[in-house]
Amino acid sequence: MFRKSMRDAWGLFGLGIGLEIVFLPLTLLFHRKIQAWELLKDWWQGPDKLATLALIVTVVLGCWLVTTLVIYGFRWLNAKLREHDVY
């Protein structure tokens, strides 16, 4: 059940990246800043690239872990409720 939760969390992150790519032309059409590009530019121009990269990786993995635990909680709750299902 935890492995399925991990795959679902990566699926959600993939969906987010996919939506970002799909709506990129719309963002450019309305002349808004692209957040991922700004993050990359700040990283490239920053004084300490290794620490910034470590921070970005830590934040992404932390968000993935929280998402995984939330999905796992819902899967666990669904399994417990399924045990008491009459129909």
Written account of the structure:
The protein has 87 residues and is mainly alpha-helical. Helix content is 84%, strand content 0%. The longest helix is centred in the C-terminal third of the chain and has 35 residues, at 49-83. It is elongated, with a radius of gyration of 18 Å.
Brief description of this entry?
With 87 residues, this protein is an all-alpha fold. It is built from 4 helices and no strands. The relative contact order is 0.13.
Topology (SSEs and partners):
Elements: H1 2-22, H2 24-29, H3 35-45, H4 49-83
Helix pairs in contact: 1-4
The first-to-last residue Cα distance is: 23 Å
Mean pLDDT: 85
Alpha plus pi helix count: 4
The main sheet comes to: none
Question: What is the chains' assembly state?
Answer: single chain
What overall form do the CA principal axes indicate? elongated
Structural class assignment: mainly alpha
The gyration radius over C-alpha positions equals 18 Å
The percent range for strand residues is: under 5%
Number of strands: 0
Percent of residues in helices: over 70%
What would the keywords be for this entry?
87 residues; mainly alpha; 0% strand; elongated
